[in-house]
Design goal:
single chain, 463 residues, alpha+beta, 30% helix, 25% strand
Length: 463
């Protein structure tokens, strides 16, 4: 079912892990890290911690539906004791929106315990589940994260170390994923061999260093850490105290980083695989302007991810950049609104127009994407009701034509307006005076030679 009713794409999750070799409780830092990753998932949040100097394998965990600040009150954080831990924010694309599918997943087994958080989607999860049921490892699982956990536990029976068990499990996985796994004495990070999903290593310097694994560099900075490096695609990193070990035996030459991290998903102040997200979005705006000749008075961006592209468009074109919208940051999670009328009200609650800025103006409006077209149609109506003479739409991504299978909620092709309408049809449907999209070749202007997954535009899937 297509749940993304605010006409925006959503990343599935954000992951965070931390190991304090000084023995400091880490729940508070995980909380701050998850706050910094809140944009990646707003349906559920969870934290699991353990103490490497206490009884082996005791895991304290709290997870529930809601925002990070709704799930974790001060007394909850205070009750989570341990110097090693993992955290998660979720926006469900598979498995449904219910507390049973919230993460972390924590399990005890014959050789110990583990807690696991996961970003992405395992496309062969059903096949693995059937195999696990045949082996007697699991009778019923509700998410691919549980499938991952059972796979690791099943391999751990005969594997000499947890790293060996994880490695054997990863060899069987197909899809895009970033994993952070807490065992009684280790914190382990895994990135899929194509690098579709991001995972970054950070450190908090001290007498004994505290190491961090996170989906984005912004989360590392939020806890006072500094970025060490991106985890390599296919790499397995093990943190034991203040020591970091790396296994690159599953790394490969072929890579396919998700372009939407740079278009929309990531926070603008994050850096991923050497690319500054804000600069990439500005470059997308510049690429749009290079091929444009529209006469306009001002350039505006749709908050938030359209603003940097609008700034880049303005700098190249010379058309002044203005803030046309006020965003209400305190509106709830309106993407769950069930009717067209409620969705329309939600857009008006989130955004309002600065009338004096747009009145009598020919406007170029830039957004990161057009999925169904309903939101852009409403924004154009709002601008024209405020007195805009013309509204020319520019999109800092190509036309969406195909679904994503790697943990992004791009819907079925039937829900993508561009999959069954021409650009001219889309322009007329949303009420724009003109419409142009970024082109595939413009990605080089945006992110240089970074190898990309562009399957939702090209129908060419890396996995």
């Amino acid at each position: 079912m297509y749940r993304n009713l605010d006409d925006k794409l959503h990343e599935e999750c954000g992951v965070f892990g931390i190991y304090s070799s000084e023995g400091t409780n880490v729940a508070q830092d995980i909380y701050y890290g998850l706050i910094a990753l809140q944009h990646r998932g707003q349906e559920s949040a969870g934290i699991a911690v353990s103490d490497t100097v206490g009884p082996m394998g005791n895991i304290s965990m709290k997870k529930d539906m809601g925002l990070v600040s709704e799930v974790f009150h001060p007394e909850v954080i205070e009750g989570l004791k341990g110097n090693i831990g993992v955290g998660h924010v979720r926006y469900s694309t598979t498995g449904g929106s219910k507390v049973e599918n919230a993460q972390p997943i924590a399990m005890n087994y014959i050789k110990g315990s583990l807690a696991l958080v996961h970003n992405g989607n395992i496309v062969n999860a059903e096949e693995l589940k059937e195999e696990q049921m045949y082996r007697g490892l699991a009778h019923y699982t509700t998410s691919d994260t549980e499938v991952l956990a059972y796979e690791i536990i099943g391999n751990r029976v005969n594997a000499p170390t947890i790293e060996d068990a994880i490695k054997e499990s990863v060899k069987k996985l197909k899809g895009g994923f970033a994993l952070v796994i807490m065992s009684p004495r280790k914190l382990i990070g895994v990135r899929d061999p194509f690098g579709i999903k991001p995972l970054i290593l950070g450190v908090i310097r001290g007498d004994q260093d505290t190491y961090i694994l996170a989906s984005e560099s912004a989360a590392i900075g939020a806890v006072g850490g500094e970025v060490v490096r991106d985890i390599e695609p296919g790499e397995i990193v093990t943190i034991t105290g203040d020591e970091v070990q790396s296994d690159r035996s599953l790394c490969q030459k072929e890579r396919a980083h998700c372009i939407f991290e740079y278009i929309y998903f990531a926070r603008s102040d994050s850096v991923m695989d050497g690319i500054e997200v804000h600069e990439a979005r500005m470059n997308a705006g510049r690429a749009l302007a290079e091929k444009d000749n529209v006469d306009a008075d001002i350039v505006v961006g749709v908050p938030d991810s359209g603003l940097a592209a609008a700034e880049g468009y303005s700098l190249y074109s010379g058309i002044p950049f203005k803030l046309a919208f006020h965003k209400n940051s305190y509106v709830g999670r309106s993407f769950i609104k069930p009717t067209d009328a409620e969705r329309s009200n939600a857009v008006h609650m989130k955004l309002s127009v600065h009338k004096k800025t747009v009145e009598g103006k020919r406007i170029v409006i830039i957004d990161d994407s057009i999925v169904r077209g309903t939101t852009m149609k409403q924004l154009i109506e709002m601008l024209k009701q405020a007195g805009a003479k013309e509204v020319h739409v520019r999109v800092s991504s190509p036309m969406f034509l195909y679904p994503c299978y790697y943990g992004t909620d791009v819907p079925t092709a039937s829900q993508l307006i561009a999959s069954h309408h021409s650009s001219e049809d889309v322009k007329n449907a949303i009420g724009a005076d003109s419409l142009k999209y970024l082109e595939i070749e413009d990605f080089k202007t945006m992110v240089g030679e970074l190898p990309l997954c562009t399957a939702c535009f090209t129908n060419t899937y890396p996995v």
